[in-house]
Each structure stands twice: as C-alpha cells, then as structure tokens.
Amino acid sequence: MLAFEGEDALEIPARALFLGAEPHATLKAWPMIVGWQPFKPRADAWDKAGLTRLEKLTDEKWPLVMILPSKSRDETLAWFAMARDRLEPGGRILAAMPNTTGAARFEKELSRAAGNIFSIQKHKCRAFHALLDHADESLLNEWRVLGEPRKISGFWVEAGIFSSDHIDPGSQLLADHLPAHLHGNVADLGAGWGFLSDAVLNRCPKIVRLDLFEADARALECARRNLASHPQEIGFHWQDVTTGLPNTYDAIVMNPPFHTGQATDVDLGRAFLRVAFASLKRGGKLLLVANRQLPYEAVLETSGMAWRKIAEDKVYKILSAEKR
Ligand SMILES: C[S@@+](CC[C@H](N)C(=O)[O-])C[C@H]1O[C@@H](n2cnc3c(N)ncnc32)[C@H](O)[C@@H]1O
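Above: inputs. Below: predicted complex with S-adenosylmethionine.
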C-alpha cells in the first residue's frame, strides 16, 4: 500500500476501517485499524492476530476505508458503496484484488463513480484508491441496492453469499431424496441461507431440534429469516465447522463446501465429513450431496461408516451413511 508514490501517494491516517479484513503482520503497528469480516475462519484469524473487529458495521466515519472484496460482482460494488457511506469528508477508499477476480474491471467501475483513481499493479494484483467526495450519487445508489437482502424462489438471500441467485442444484437433489424418518436432534453443516434446513424441516416431522452451522454471518442472517415460520426449535451458529461441533446429533445433512476463496479445496470437504462423523451419535445418519468426482467415499470408509449412494445425476451424487 505504501508503494503509492509521487502524485499517487496515499497518506496513511491513524484510523482506518477494513472491510473483508484479513490479518497481516504490518497491521499490528497501525494505531487504530478496525476490521469487519463476515466469514468466521477469517474473523477468527483476525482476532487471533490481536486486532480489533466489529461484529456489526456501524455508521462511524473514517478517513480511510480499505476493502478486500471477493469475486462476486454485486458484493464488490455493494462494498464500494458501503465504504463510501463510512468515509469522512476527504476520506479515501483503498481496494486490493487479485487480477483473476476481475481487479481491472472493478477498478474501472470505481473510477466511474469517483472520477480520478490511483492504481498500482504488483504480484498479479491491483490496488487502487480514490476520493469519493464528488462521486456519482446515482451510481452509488445502484450499488447500495445490490447489497440489500432480496428474494429468490421465496427465500431471502444477499449478494456474496453462496448460491445468492439460484437454488443450488446439488442441494435440490438432496432435498428431493431426503428420507422422511430423520428424527430427534439434527444438524445442517455449512447451512448457507437455509435451503436444505427448510427442506429437512418440511419433510421430516419427527425432528425436535435443528442446528444450523454456517461460516458466513450474512447467510446465517438470511437463514434466520427464511426459517422463521417453522415451529421446531432451531439453533443458528456462526461457526467454522472444521473446528468441531459442541453437540452430538441423531442425523446430519450437508452440502459441504469444497472451495477456499477461488481455489478448489477438497480437504475442506473432507474436514466436514470427519467433523460430521465425530458429531453423530451411534446409529446416527449422515446425508450429503457432492459433485460426483469428489472422493468422499474414502473418508466414509476410513471412518468405518456403513454407506451407500442413494442417487446421482450427471453432476452430483447423494451419499447416505450410518455411524456403527
Ligand atoms: C455448498 S454451500 C451449501 C449451502 C447450503 N447448505 C445450501 O444447500 O444452499 C457450503 C456452505 O458452507 C459454508 N462454509 C464454507 N466454509 C465453512 C466453514 N469452514 N464452516 C462453516 N461453513 C462453511 C459456505 O459459506 C456455504 O454457505
């Protein structure tokens, strides 16, 4: 960031807000940097580094708002607007993105709103900063709207969360094959905005309690709204599933994640399976959907679970397992 020089120079103020905060050793020396991070594993990493974090964004104004956006177009533009709404007069937005997530495109978008923009390229990334005192207000308004909760197929979703513009076809396949006999205490791991949880509650009348575990706080908020009309007891947990669950369950359902950021990460899915196994009671059932090529059967074998494939299509498979 200090690489902005000459007329591009960026004055570093004592106070800064960091949206999508991720820790770095140099941030420790900053007099006051406050992070906001909706994704639990990254929020945990920020906390572990001893940095200050906001659980919820406030209206406080800052001389600098830094952004590490994701690959989602709507989320990135909404975060630009969110940042602008928290700038003091004369304050600046500073964003950094890998080229592979469309950095050039988003730099152009921000310059449409700001006019003048300063940019550097390094390590296959771009960083750019802008003053938004005289920004294009109607464009910013459009971006603000992109960040508001909206409905798809009757469910609340938000930009940037998993499957925010359609029902995931894998989750739909699992919903279509859910056995009605699931009962007692059930958990949904990586529950997203609650599509599978809703299907489970509709299909299985003997469920007493359902616990949703999800890393994305915004998705979990949507799930809270989406499941509000169900009479069963429901727990909503903002949690990194890979760190383990606090309870054991009669059944677990899941569509496990297999991406960390942009990269495919089969180990993340495997970790979900191991946590599911550890959190099932003896005789407990696991139902999961996965892309056909993902090698989860080996984890079920190693865990000693009795398993079978109960359905598949061209892309997905549904595995059903029981803890012996
Ligand atoms: C494939 S999606 C399934 C979402 C939802 N169950 C559905 O069917 O629409 C996987 C979900 O896992 C969440 N996730 C990713 N890593 C996680 C972690 N370490 N702990 C908990 N949830 C995680 C993602 O945010 C995403 O919502």
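The mean pLDDT is 94.
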